[in-house]
Write a sequence for this structure.
């Protein structure tokens, strides 16, 4: 069609009025056809000029991204498209592409709809080329929510297989209290039977009461076991979004630092230096690192009891706690290290097992929950520890991979 119009335009002065009108009708029909095709696409399309000002879009684009107003208004303005996007991460991504003249890039983002639900979108930016010249950019917005939800569902189904071992451990824990309850009830029954045979003369003072006290204690023990079991097996209610872990860790370090300084412990944070989003729940992510940091704090204080606020009696002693983040093989790797009292080989082998604890008042479920949350984020957690030397937890989380492969 373009070649046809070009050839006709060269002879327009020789055309009759009817032929010109017919030509315009053809052009209008062709434009309608193109618009119909673009509007029928399941992906949102934004066509921008060299200054990232919106020139054209399809209907579905407005439902794929959160905009501050109607796109029709953006076309009439002289402001770049990111000023109309009501999402800080997406707006920053597009602004960064414009300023650094990035013409090929793809990123995934999570947005919150007006109804409060989480939606995942993939945004791809490609060059708009006309007659071998860069003439702007094309932004394609794909809804990948269903894909992400399926990945989460499959991961949770895999985790259900681990409940078998947990249930077996629970059965073993319940067996002992039930045995004790059975024995003491049998003793009470024998005492009552003997009393009836002996003209209803009751046993000695507090005989029955002592047995009942034991039964009540074991029932309370059973109740605690059941509640702990429910905590251990209950699915983690994670609302997964694409978040930058370095930003969350940076805020968390500011929150934790006063507590560590109070015990004379130096705290270091070494971020990766690269903004990279991964699938996580910010509240649960914070819970993991608060739990690990509290364990490190206890381990350091146990090794260096003489250390107090901002100082140690022994100048050669330097209690340390550090968090280090890095990018390795399409993963974000976070290491939490301390030079505290460390762990024995036995503790190290059982650290993630439910009900195992070395603390007098511990439930033995803190590290179990840490393990569950990390797995919920499709991550892995490893621990390396030496007694009287220190401990390092290594957490790794996959970086979402894009389906679209682009040339540099």
């Amino acid at each position: 069609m373009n070649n046809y119009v070009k050839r006709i335009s060269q002879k327009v002065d020789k055309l009759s009025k009817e032929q010109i009108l017919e030509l315009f009708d053809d052009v209008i029909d062709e434009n309608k056809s193109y618009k119909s095709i673009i509007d029928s696409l399941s992906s949102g399309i934004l066509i921008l000029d060299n200054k990232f000002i919106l020139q054209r879009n399809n209907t579905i684009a407005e439902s794929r991204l959160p905009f501050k107003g109607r796109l029709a208004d953006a076309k009439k303005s002289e402001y770049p498209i990111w000023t109309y996007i009501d999402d800080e991460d997406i707006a920053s991504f597009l602004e960064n592409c414009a300023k650094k003249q990035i013409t090929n890039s793809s990123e995934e983002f999570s947005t919150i709809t007006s109804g409060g639900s989480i939606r995942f979108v993939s945004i791809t930016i490609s060059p708009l080329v006309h007659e071998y010249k860069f003439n702007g950019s094309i932004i394609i917005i794909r809804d990948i929510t269903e894909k992400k939800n399926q990945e989460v569902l499959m991961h949770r189904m895999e985790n259900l297989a681990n409940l078998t071992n947990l249930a077996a451990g629970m059965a073993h824990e319940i067996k002992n209290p039930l045995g004790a309850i059975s024995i003491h009830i049998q003793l009470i029954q024998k005492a009552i039977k003997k009393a009836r045979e002996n003209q209803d003369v009751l046993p000695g003072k507090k005989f029955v009461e002592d047995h009942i006290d034991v039964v009540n204690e074991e029932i309370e023990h059973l109740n605690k076991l059941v509640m702990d079991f429910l905590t251990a097996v209950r699915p983690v209610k994670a609302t997964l979004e694409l978040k930058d872990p370095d930003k969350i860790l940076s805020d968390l370090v500011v929150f934790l630092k006063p507590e560590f300084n109070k015990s004379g412990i130096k705290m270091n944070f070494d971020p990766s230096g690269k903004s990279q989003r991964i699938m996580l729940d910010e509240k649960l992510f914070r819970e993991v690192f608060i739990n690990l940091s509290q364990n490190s704090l206890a381990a350091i204080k146990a090794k260096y009891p003489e250390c107090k606020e901002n100082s140690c009696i022994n100048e050669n002693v330097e209690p340390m706690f550090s968090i280090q983040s890095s990018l390795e093989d399409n993963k974000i790797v976070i290491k939490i290290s301390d030079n505290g009292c460390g762990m024995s080989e036995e503790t190290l082998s059982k650290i993630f097992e439910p009900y195992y604890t070395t603390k007098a008042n511990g439930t033995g479920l803190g590290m179990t929950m840490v393990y569950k949350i990390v797995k919920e984020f499709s991550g892995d957690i490893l621990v390396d520890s030496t007694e009287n030397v220190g401990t390092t937890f290594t957490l790794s989380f996959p970086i979402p991979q894009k389906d679209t492969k682009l040339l540099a």
